[in-house]
User: Fold these one by one.
Assistant:
Number 1:
Amino acid sequence: MAAQNPEEVLARFEELSVLESEFDDVELEIIRKSNALNAPLYKKRAAVVAKIPHFWALVFEQSPPEVDNFIQPSDSKVFAECLETFEVSRFEIDDPKGSPRSFSIKFGFGDNEYFEDRVLEKKFWFRKALDGDGWQGLVSEPVKISWKKGKDMTSGLTDAAYDLYQAKKNLADAANGDAKAKESSLPEYRALAKKIELSEEASISFFAWFGFVSSWRWISAEESEQASKAEAERLEKRKRGEKVEEEPTEDSNEDFQETEVFPQGDELATIIAEDMWPSAIKYFKHAHEADDEELSDLEVEDYDEDDSDGEIDIRGLVGKGRNSKDSSESPPPKKQRKT
């Protein structure tokens, strides 16, 4: 095959870029149609699982490793005792300025000893950046959790993340576009960075996920809209066969992740929204199938409610263990504590 000159290589590259955008359009249409088709089924499922005690606690007990690795024994106990409802929704599905990839994850809790909130909702917006080599992905605002006295399972991380986010918003309103250079000087910035540094060797609670902002940096709706408009203009030029000059990006030495309390937050959210939510019945059935497995190779030590360093079994807590009804001699298999 004869070698192509640079102009031909560039032309093929532009063709691939146009094709890539067409694949992206198809993917968005699939999300819209899937959402429409599944909506009545999710409504029907909600009516059924409302009659099943601890349905969602058992679903999270059987969560895939990518999620389970972030659920500590103390988190499992919260889910088992007070998680009542769970819902994922595509809140920008019909918004022409939004994205079908955006979604919210909503947990409904009963009265409990940990926090005052009955609902904790985490929203994720799919946004595009003007810099960062065209970065695009999920961003979120920290959620304020009303922890009861002495019950903050995140050791202050969610409160500190929320405080910093609010301080950044106030700074942006008053700085006339020069806010980013001043963010690292905020006392809330230094306070959160210090908390994260001190917590690196500890097992972080799943509830710290509610403090997640971005795997890169926060992107506003306005910036994302500008980036989308610029991308659409470049696409039209490519379709007309015109040469597109990529705008140079400024290198930044700023460490945006220095104050990110849950760096894998977007990955965790995606698995929950795109796997656990649509496949909840499968995970629930797995919990019951596990009750029928042989226990000879599993650890069956008694669960000590006051031993925070022990192991948690949600099925045992909610009365779904294999022998919970018939025998007190052989408790159900334990969920291993994360290290």
Number 2:
Amino acid sequence: MTLGEIAKIINAQVEGDSARLITGISNLQAAKAGDISFLDNPKYRSYLGSTKASAVILSAADRIHCPCDALVVNSPYFAYATIAHVFAPKITAAAGIHPTAVIGENCQIDETASIGAHVTLEDRVVIGKRTQIRAGSVIGQDARIGDDCLIWANVTIYYGVQIGHRVIVHSGAVIGADGFGFAPHEGQWHKIPQLGTVIIEDEVEIGASTTIDRGALEDTILSRGVKLDNQIQVGHNCQIGENTIVAGCSGLAGSTKIGKNCLLGARVGIAGHVEIADRVTLCAETTVMNSLKIPDKVYASGIGQLEYADWKKNMARFRSLDEYMRRLIALEKKINEKGIGEKAHDK
């Protein structure tokens, strides 16, 4: 593909030879002749001058520092994401049902779908057009999966789960297991049947080994465009708004409601029955105990890394914080009382 052809795809201005052949894509440090690279984060600007790439996607402000051909765009990161699809390997599967697959009664499988080796479809499963179910996956009875979905190997989708179109589910994910519902009575925990299901709308991506529990009474819902990283726990009855993205190892307790276009960093923990407004950002390792009802806010909690000796001192002081506060309040009270007494004496 030529540089000019790439420029048309990402609506870029060509600075250099539009006929230059581009054969691959890489980062600035590892790029070689024939590769195209990109610069978006200023932290990597120092690598621009020495890159071996044949061309770089960048902003107009960075063009002056580029030693090779360039594609100038307003949003280099989005342009890179777009063109990366051109160079991504095309992993396809032939339409049809593998002879080792186990297919239940009254299933509806579109003739363009691909059912891989050792897949199990229980009764009344519906599989849409061009959807791929990779090896070893298990789809429970009455589940529905829409068109153009990709279910990677060894995914488990429980009974009654509803999945829309253009959804990607990575290996090891479990969708629709029972939520963590138990009622205490006379010193024992008694299981509560989970009567809802999981509804996954269009264009959602679910990372490897992520678990999404079915609802207790209401359904657990992932709205259109939601992106979940690996090893995330989504509790029963959770609702995640459109285009919200959640990084790895985060945990959402039951009945959490997250708004649209939110961004959750890695290892965020959210207590149950909490509501979060639209466009809220939670930095990595933030713990949310109460609802956040104001949109467009950024929150963080916890402390960053410290040298061990400093961390030990700070933790020791933290344990005494309440005592220090009480002493400070008492001292302020004495100062105020003394000030009032002196004023009275002056009169």
Number 3:
Amino acid sequence: MNKEYVVAFAKKLLAIDSPTGYTKKAIDFVEEEAKRFGYQTKRNHKGNLWIYVKGNHHHKTLGLCAHCDTLGLMVRSIKSDGKLALTNLGGPIIPTLDGEYCRIYTRDGQCYSGTILSTSPAAHVYKDASTKKREIDEMEVRIDEVTYTKEDTQKLGIQNGDIVAIDPKVQITESGFIKSRFLDDKISVSALMGILHHLKENAITPAYDLIFMMSTYEEVGHGMAHIPDEIAELLAVDMGCIGLDLACTEQDVSICAKDSSGPYDYDLTSKLIELAKREAVSYAIDIYPQYGSDVSAARNAGNDIKGALIGPGVHASHGMERTHIDGVLNTMKLILAYICEE
């Protein structure tokens, strides 16, 4: 596995803002790379990307999915002093956003920088600066333009419904840790692209036809509600949970037995566990207490599939996230074993 490729790809993808509903640039980037490898691609009407890989056998098709959409914010309204009131896209941990830099994307193609702040941002002015609850209605964006009124901001072309993207603050440490917002799920997208790179570079043909799918609305629950009819099994590659009594670490691939949507397919999950043992992959089996995946969306929409969920352990999900390259590589090793198993 080429970890340098995966890390470099992840850094590029994480630098592309893609809050849920605003994913075209990220999907374009992933599709361009898939085409560079020579794979056929397609998009459905909602913008999900499908990448086709021919296998040795054609009587069964396996789907593998990750999501390019991230958490984010949207302009709810423009305040009288020119600052922006907000509504959240997906479920970011709102208190962690206080003081974060952001970018505002207008519908006419402008991009402005700003800072997300509490409505009581100054310790020298507000008695409740440190105690005020950091809830979405008490947060706002200070735009980096000369704007003191609602009219000033409107003249910039900013309007209700504009996207507010949060700076991911990507860092890669010498010890192998990957620190960034939105590792959920761009690190898994990068792992899947690393698999495609590995197949191409080593002339490996998987056992069955594959469709790699990158979804665009996972964070709001309907990313993979529609999938190609020919898919018999769907493997979601998404972040593994860490905390409470869960067994996973940032260096493991997590195999999820059950999440908030219910248990994953028993036989397919058992197969993944056996493959992890056979390949000497560092893994953990866990129950995710507050979680739903693209397999959940596909099953809830009535798709006739076996579904399973794996992914690298990610600490502090929906906040300032962190994983380790070992967890990503272990995830890739398990995926490779799965797609090459007859």
Number 4:
Amino acid sequence: MLRKNILIFLKNISGGIMNVKEAGSISRTGLQLGDHAPRPPEPQDQDQIISNWKGDLSSPLVSIKCNAYNHAGYIRDAINSFLMQRTNFPFEVIIHDDASADGTDKIISEYMERYPFIIRGVLQKENQYSQGKRPGNFTAHLVRGKYIALCEGDDYWLDENKLQIQADFLESNPGFAVCGHDACVIENGIVVRETKLRDNQKRDFSAMELQRGVYVLTLSAMFVNKLGEAPPEHSQVVNGDDFFLSRLGEFGGSKYLPEIIPAVYRRHEGGVWSLVDDRKRKAHSINTQYWIMQYYSRKGNSRLATYFASKAAANLFSSLPSFSFRELVFLFVQLLKMFFIRKFSFFKKRLKK
């Protein structure tokens, strides 16, 4: 079947649900600025989805991992985009809700009841992130897939063939550890950025480049399930994407798949990362590079440890001209807090073991 291009949408004031299969004239390069973002269709029932699967239905090839927190206004789009996937293999959806206060957990429970064979959830009664615990700590043991696909509860996919394309590629190309694609950025349902990737990021990366740090959109990523338990250093960073991508480089390179319709990254007030200011982003970035350096140092990889040490230093000094004296003081205070507080926490955990 010829694959249809992504929709052109009428700019209706309702911004209602549009079926991804209804229109086929928009360019595969994505939506235009000011467009209403398309939303996934209402999903088929469980039996219809499973009817196309082959092989052992209880052994999913792909596990979709989704983290949610106060995403009641968005989570349906995310889950519907998972359930619209057309595959010839079994997949599963694992959702972690971190004690949402807006009813997100009730929506997830509704889907779990309707799709008990496909969707499993971990619904926390007490927020874990505020205690320094990551969602992955609670869902890792549930993952059965050979490959893992990621999408946060406030983002969603647009291509119904995304999983099939990515899984087929990884199955046929064992030299790659991860593959991904582009996404647009929306605010209040309106496209504010046509692409989230720069042109120089829309390419393949070698295993070494992946280890040294490249940008692969996590909401687009599918990767081999080979990482195992997260190292203790990983818990010391705020945004762990760079860390896990670097570790994936041990198993192969990264493939960019432009044929997949761009996904949707949602920017909103409740977003954990999208609205973090530049100063905090810079401090978090330096902190992440520091802990990746510590990880590779502990693993005996002096080449990568040295690389990330120099990268953290260069990142710090390159930012100096753009900050006022007051901002520099703020930055250094933030870095000192992160380095010393997290270092203490790290060694405390190591001593307990």
